[in-house]
Structures are given as structure tokens and as C-alpha cells.
Specification:
This protein is mainly beta. A four-stranded antiparallel beta sheet has the order 1-2-5-4, with no helix packed on it. Helices cover about 15% and strands about 45% of the residues.
């Protein structure tokens, strides 16, 4: 086989199994509550290893433009939930009711070998 072709094939194989391709990720947010209720939302964790989950640290912050005094910002609690089937998700809750119909925030996830930031925007409908 041509040496140049072997190098190209080997390079493509290395790229195909690059560890970053299998790094921890997060899904879209699923909202389970309505306006004037305590926040109840979940974010699935995708492609996470046990080591990544064990070293995972999650924080939440407001986006710029949502400064103190503009409206009541609910204090969010984040819990890592591990399900028996091996899947994991983040459960976001608030003690206080969410009174504004739009909630924008940034989730930052850090683990031993990496980190990601993801912006979420919730449009919260009134309860019917």
C-alpha cells in the first residue's frame, strides 16, 4: 500500500477516536413548572464517564443585563441526579416562586479534564 495513503488513513483514524469527541455534554433544558411556582427544570448530562461525574462541579450565574434590582432573581439549587440505568441529569430548583416570565442564566460545568459553559433561556408560561 502507498505510504502516503497509510499516513492519511492513520491520521483519519486518530481524529475519529479523539477523546474530545466523547467529552461530557449537556442537553436542552426541560421545564416542569409554571409561572408563580418554584422552578423545577432538568438538564440531561450526555456522554459522561464515572470519573467526570465524580469530579463535576456546577455553578449558575445571571447573564449580563439581569443585574440586581431589575427583578427578583430566584436562588437556584442544582443537584446532580444519577439514575439506575447509568444516565445522569441536573435538577434545577428554587425555593421561591419565579415571578418573571423570562429567566436567562449561564450554567458552568467543570470537571477534572475539562469545562463547558452553556446559556439557557426559559420562557415560563402561566399555569393553565
Amino acid at each position: 500500500m502507498n505510504k502516503k495513503l497509510l499516513i492519511i488513513i492513520f491520521g483519519m483514524l486518530l481524529f475519529a477516536v479523539h477523546p474530545a469527541a466523547y467529552a461530557l455534554g449537556v442537553s436542552e433544558i426541560k421545564l416542569n413548572s409554571s409561572l408563580n411556582q418554584s422552578l423545577d427544570a432538568t438538564v440531561d448530562i450526555l456522554s459522561a464517564t464515572l470519573e467526570e461525574l465524580n469530579s463535576l462541579n456546577v455553578s449558575v450565574s445571571r447573564l449580563s443585563g439581569q443585574t440586581a434590582g431589575m427583578y427578583h432573581w430566584p436562588e437556584l439549587k442544582i443537584e446532580l441526579v444519577r439514575v439506575e440505568d447509568g444516565k445522569s441529569y441536573l435538577k434545577l430548583t428554587s425555593k421561591d416562586s419565579v415571578r418573571e416570565p423570562v429567566l436567562n442564566f449561564l450554567l458552568e460545568l467543570k470537571w477534572a479534564t475539562g469545562h463547558i459553559k452553556r446559556e439557557y433561556s426559559l420562557l415560563i408560561n402561566p399555569q393553565l
